[in-house]
Amino acid sequence: MGQKLHNRIEIWKKLLLDFGKRNRLINFLEGKRSNVMITTPSLDKLWEFIVVNEREIVFPYAQKVQVDDDGEEIYETIIRGDIETNKPIDDLQKTLKSLRYKANTSIEEQGINTLYLTLGMLKWKERDDSSQVFSSPIILVPVRLLIESITSPYRLVLHDDEIVINPTLSHKLDNDFGILMPEFDSTHDSPTDYLEKLSCKIKNKGWNVEESTHLTNLSFLKINMYKDLERNEEKLNANSVIAALVGEKNPIQVSEDLNNFDHDKQIRPIDTFQVVDADSSQQDAVLLSKKGASFVLQGPPGTGKSQTITNIIAEAIADGKKVLFVSEKMAALQVVYSRLASVGLADFCFTLHSHKAKKKDILRDLANSINIDRTRVRDEALTQLDLLERKRCLLNEYQEELHTQTSGLNVSIYSVNGELAKLENVPDVIFSISDVDTVTVAVLNERRYLLNELSKTMGKRSEDYTDNVWRDSSVKFLSNALRHEIDSNVATAIPLIKELAERHTSICSKLGVKFESSLIGIDDLISLLSFVAKSPTIPIEWIMNHNTDSLIENAHKYKLQVEQIAKITTELKSKYRDIFFDCDATKRKNSLCSLMHKLQARIEENDKDWIAQNIDKINDELISITNGINSIIEEAKLLSSKLGISELNTINQVICFIKSIQALADIHNIQPTQKWFNNEELTRIKSSIEVCKSLHNAVLESRDSILSHFDKEILEWDFYPVLQRFRSEYKSFFRIFNGRYHKDIKQLNLYLSKGEKISYNKALEVLNVLKQYSDNQGTITTNTSQYYDDYGNYYACINTQWDVLSDDIEKFEESVCHLHMITSDLKNLIVQGQLPVSEIIQFKTHYSEFNIESAFERLCALLKCDCNKASQWNDIRIYAQETNSIAIEFISEYQSLMNMQKVNCNYESAISDLDLLMSLNVLNERLAKQKDSICHMYKDYYDGTETDWEKLIEALKYAVDLKNLVSLYNLPESFIKNICEDCGIRTYCYNENLIMSEQKDALQKSITWFVSLFNNGKDFYQHNIIDLANRMSLCKDKKYLLEEWVDYCSNREKCKNVGLEEYINKAEELKIDSNYIVEAYLKRFYRLWLDAVLPNFPAVQNFRGRIQTQTINEFCELDKGQFKIAQARVRERALSRIPDFNSVNGARDEIAILKRELNKQRRLMPLRKLFMTIPNLVTSLRPCFMMSPLSVSVFLEAQSYDFDLVIFDEASQVHTEDAIGAIMRGKQVIIVGDTKQLPPTSFFSTSLNDEDFDVDTDEAIEDNDAGAYESILDEAVAILPERSLRWHYRSRHEHLIAFSNIKIYNSQLITFPSSTEKAPDCGVEYVYVKDGIYDRGGKKNNVIEARRVADLVFEHFKKHPKRSLGIVTFSESQQNAVDAAKALLAEAQNKAASAEDEKTKAQKETEIAQAEAELVKAGEALQSSEADITVKKQALASAQETLQSLQAAKDQKDTALSQAQNDFQQAQTEIERIQSEVSAKEAEVAKAEANLSAAKTAYETEQNNQKAGEAEQADAEQQLENAKKTQSEAEEKVTEAQKVYDRMVEAQKNAQALALKGSYGFFAYKDKDNKALDILEDTKLKVAGDKVAISSYTEIGNEDDATSLENMKLALEFIKKCNDLRVENGLEPLKVSDEMMAISQVQANWSAFNRTHSRTYYVGENLAWGYQDPFDVWYDYEKKVYEETGSESRTGHYRNIVNKKWAMTGFAVTARGNWLTTEQSFGYAEYYSANAKSFEEYNQEFQEYYNLVMNSSAGTSQALEALNTAKQELEEAQKQVEAAVWAIEQAKQKQAEASAKMQQKQQEINNNTQAVQEAQEKLAQAQQKHSQSAEANAAAHTAVEKAEKEAQEARQAVKTQQQAVDQAQNELNLVQASQEEKQKITIMHLQR
């Protein structure tokens, strides 16, 4: 322990006990109001009276008390009580009042009784030589002072507390003097005897004991606190808060993360357990408490300390913490307890404020805690919390976004909307502002300034700028030189303009045309004149009637058509005889194509040339294979019939049959049983062979062993009885004395084959062998039939050849699996050995010569049909025969065409030539049909084949231009006719064109100079030239306007430079007032700024008032609801921790201890001992202890109780030494209080004023000051972090707290404005009291002010009788003055009331005199009314008699009805009881079903969770697979990109050389082993009939060759077009490979010279010659033909393009030869597909290479960038793999958790299912009872209805008679009333 802590502990201990002179338990001083000395009766009588007899003692009192003008009480009559004191009556009353007030205050605030009757006084000295004698009370009797009213006497009664000896005195005597005071038993000892014992003990000290009695306030219970500190120094040393408090550790800090904590963002509703509402500052405090931090909570008045403490305790209970809530004042504990009780948490709070707690009540509370029903929060409640969180996030998001400062302006949306509101009346100008959201404050301020300057300039102008002739001028400064230039140029230009205008008018009139009189119009006119001057002679119809564009298009078409006819004819004549031109090309092509199409559909080959060349061989092979397979099948069918196998119709069946024949040939020597065909049986038999073999071998070995020494007859001997005797009787040595033993040995000797004798051991061995042999032989005999069934003929008992059997079974098992067609007949043949072995061997031999499988595979390879081995052979055979017929027909037709050729060519070439012939015929026919039409269109320009098409086309182009001019200038028809027909017009136009051009040139310089002075000077060219002249003249005359314009433009330019041009234009257009220039811009700017930033703030952008209001309302409801949920959740958690009270426990178990105490009727264990014995149970039942610091030390043993959290409330009122005991019991401490409030005030310290003791030393005064202002709060503030509550709620009016907030709390409190600022009797009101002066030197009060207070009190209750009222004074003297003023005022009001009574009495005497005169008259009237009363009474009596008789009948009926109703009611009650029982059972069923349903739902939920987990795992695995695939692809990309980069680097060095290599260089660049290189270099492959290799036609790198890079680039564009066409037709785009490109290039180069297909590669091919775009013919033309005719022979190119079987393509373009040749190859996926890529990928590779060669450095950079990109993709893919692996682990974990929960829920389902069944059975029983009761109820109901009817009739009769009686009674009453009135008058007169 540190020295600082040790020192502080000693100080605390001294402060607790206070053995100094100020402690009245040590130094009892008689003060004026601090005690009353009782002089009579004596001490013993007083003891007997109060303690023994427990009677009340009445003090003397005054029967009549008055108050004088000064508020003093005057006692007129004094009544003697039971005792006498040393004080006069007035002092006595005041002293008793003071003592009672302080005692009651102590009980109410601290739960401690401080009023004691002291018996005996010890007179002692500290030292023998000291002259100061101290008085200390000895016996302390606890008492109470009672009083009923101010005029009643005070009564003294015994209190429930224990009578004790002064503990402080006892402790001091023991510690300082070693004197132990005697024990005192209040039930047996008398006080005088005790005082005598004490006298004996202290007589040697020179002290004495006085028998005096005093009534005073004392407190000594802090001795427990003292002992607490004394016993627990180690615990104090271990506490971190105490260590910091004494300075041994640094002050405690909290994490920075907890400062400015955002609760909404970081805490979810489901994670909080706050049970009452809390503001932000309260939540900060709750947060620190949850985090385990010790801190000071500053709680100014009305800021919700108690509700904050309530939330802290609730959170702690929810977290399973133990809480100690400490407060000096009972009221503070009660407030928090009440709040906890209101939220349902009182069951977990243990209130022990008073040291005198009742044991039974405490035990009963603990028992009640155990028996509380467990509760469970429903899942729906948790859903509400989730919904609350969502709503809270929505609202917070909107608020945050609304006030977030953003963009360059660093302002919020809210503030901008505020600025917009100020600009509401400013005009709206619509314009755009670029990057409005990035504008900074500086930029916006600059724009404001510039606009403001512009607005000033606009305000000074002479006239509007729109009317300024110099508007839009670009002049920056008006110099003198410029002035001169203006005058000169304008003077030159105006005459020229006027002359030009006159000529313009003249020409338009002459030609009949209209052109604008502007500079542009004049230019147009000059252009027209120039055009007309060059006009050729053309037909006017071309202009008026024809579509000239179509004439030109047709001219080109006819020209091309004629050229094509000549070209095709020349080509075909070079290849074919003349007979070829006479054949029907269409018919012949259709026939060949149809047959070829059928062959392609049937033969596994698509190359038509190959089919045509090899069709003879294919046909022969087809016939051979078909015949061979057919013969073997026929032979198999014959054999299968003998074996009992079904018919063989498919190749599979034949193959299986052949395999079966092979297997039969292998097993024909084996003799199996039927069981061998069953796999399970065969397995069993195989496994049993070894067992059987061992068994049989054991028999052989045993037999051979026996027969080696014995005769074989021994095997038939009954040896078993002998063996039993050997194993039992003969085991001992005494067997030699047994005669039977010798007889048995002799019997064995008889079987010996040799003459030797046998010993005992040998005999026993032989008998055992015999037994073994006998047992094994018996087993064999038992299972012999089974062996024959299993092994058949192989079994021969012990002679069985087991190895042969095993080998044959193995061989059979291997072969039988090939018997695919085992029938019962075949089984029988095999088992019986009746197989046709010779025929099987013969078929097997035949099959080995002809392999049907390979033959069928060759057949399938030849034929393209949907057939397999499972197909019917007959169908396949027929299909092959049909194919054979088609082949023969094709051979005949194709040979016929070949005979017409001059030179041999292949099939594709022949078909292509037929296409050419068809095209030639079409072209000739079309041209012949169109001859007349052509002549009509082109008139004299057409001259048949001699037509000059170029001249014709040029004339047509002129016509097109003329038509455009006609349309452009709206030229009249007469003008057109003149141009086409009149040569004079052309001459006129030529001359005028020259003149106008000269005039325009002369004017051009001046006009150009003038136009240059304006920004939009070009607009002048559109103005009327006369207006232009006028404008120029005005500019010359008004040069001063140019100066204004320059100034305006300067400011305008500045605005333009900062982006304000559009706004200025709009402002000028709308003529915005200069005063609004800045504001209008800001209005638009703010609106656009909002539009720009709002997308970044979706919550604000999507804001809708109605939805927001709805969300707020929903949030409010959910927010309120969360407290109920939190209360239930806290309760659920707390209850779950309560142990099972009914569990079996040992004697030492805490529950068992509590049970024993609960069952006791007396001798209960003291509470401190009980709490020490069951600390864990108590804190489990009641986790929150609510105690005073004193009760903590009284009841809780420090070593048994460690609290997780200690909370001090009203800590400013707690001394540090009082708090330490509670603090040391906690791990975490929260000190709650207000440092602005008064320091701790103890009754005993404050009561010690100057009159309490005589000492007046400086030391005493210093000690008093040192202890007056210390509190645990003051000390804690220095070492603990602080949190302050800031929101003030208590004051109904803001003024009530305003002064304190401003002056004391520095305006830190947040208060709520009042709805009314000032109102009568509301808030704070100042009442001025004139002459209200404080009597400083006298009575220390203010009587005048007190009287005003009394007036206000009475006024208050008159105005507001239902409002309570409190009066606060600053001294007791003033309080008494107010009381006296109230009494005086009440007396004055009583006197006023008496005077009012006298006045009322005089008025009444006058009234009596008047009443006596009227009395006489009333007597006379009374006599006359008595006669009428008699008559009326007689009539009434008669009616009543009749009524009584009817009433009797009615009563009888009512009785019957009542009985019936009782019966019915009993039946109804019974049925209701049963119905209730039924309902209860139904409820049980419903509850059970609901539980079952809930369990099933929960099970399904967990099942879904498991499935979700499985799905997540599957998804994650799929993602992992995808990620791995992506990773693999990325790795490949990196590798490929690295290669590309390496190649790029290398290629960059050789770019020039690569360019010359064309495609060869590209292919080699990609892969030096590229197969495409082999194709380009292949010197062996030749076209049929050609002498050189096909590659010899290729000149690699030649600019016209297909291998040039430019041609390859063009070829790739054509591939893209092909793929686009395929996509349009719903087909997959073709891939591109290097091999296909090389093939196309080689074939294109060859075809360029040979004009046909090479047919050297296994590809499809499209060829075109002379077409810039071959797809015009391949696709557009042939598609149209195909759609119109369906012809396949004429549309091969088109069908290649849209053939879905093609997967690959290559393309080539070559300009070699006489034609531009284009070639496209098509291939299957399995051919020429090495490194095939999509077009996009391939094209990208080529473009990279192309750029490399053409721009090598750029290519290298791109390759490097691609490499880096690929590496980044690889890294990303690796991350995805890691993420997927983690996701799989998470999914597996989730799945495992769900599976465990499913098992739990399944058990719940089973339990609930049983409960439902039981409840349904009970329900059925109850429903049966209900049915029986319903019948009884119906009968009773019928009886009730009958009785009711009879009773109703009786009641009606009674009612009728009752009405008669009532009428008579009324008449009587009227008479009697009249009589009574008269009697009253008479009495009144008499009274007067």
Provide an overview of this structure:
With 1888 residues, the protein is mainly alpha-helical. 63% of the residues lie in helices and 6% in strands. Helix 18 packs antiparallel against helix 39. The relative contact order is 0.09.
Give the arrangement of secondary structure elements.
Blueprint: H1 3-17, E1 35-40, H2 43-52, E2 57-58, E3 61-67, E4 73-79, E5 84-85, H3 89-110, E6 115-124, E7 134-146, E8 155-158, E9 164-165, H4 167-177, H5 191-202, E10 208-217, H6 223-231, H7 233-238, H8 240-245, H9 263-266, H10 280-290, E11 295-298, H11 305-318, E12 323-326, H12 330-342, E13 349-352, H13 359-370, H14 379-403, H15 413-422, H16 441-459, H17 480-511, H18 519-533, H19 541-544, H20 548-573, H21 579-582, H22 585-602, H23 608-643, H24 651-667, H25 679-707, H26 720-727, H27 739-751, H28 760-782, H29 784-791, H30 802-816, H31 824-832, H32 837-849, H33 852-862, H34 873-898, H35 907-929, H36 931-938, H37 949-969, H38 973-981, H39 983-1011, H40 1025-1037, H41 1040-1057, H42 1061-1070, H43 1077-1093, H44 1098-1101, H45 1105-1136, H46 1150-1159, H47 1167-1173, H48 1175-1181, E14 1184-1187, H49 1189-1195, E15 1205-1208, H50 1216-1223, E16 1229-1233, H51 1243-1246, H52 1258-1268, H53 1272-1279, E17 1282-1284, H54 1295-1303, H55 1343-1359, H56 1372-1549, H57 1551-1566, H58 1571-1577, H59 1605-1624, E18 1631-1632, H60 1634-1650, E19 1660-1665, H61 1671-1685, ...
Parallel strand pairs: 11-16, 11-17, 12-14, 12-15, 13-14, 15-16, 18-20
Antiparallel strand pairs: 1-5, 1-10, 2-8, 3-4, 6-7, 6-10, 7-8, 7-9, 19-21, 20-21
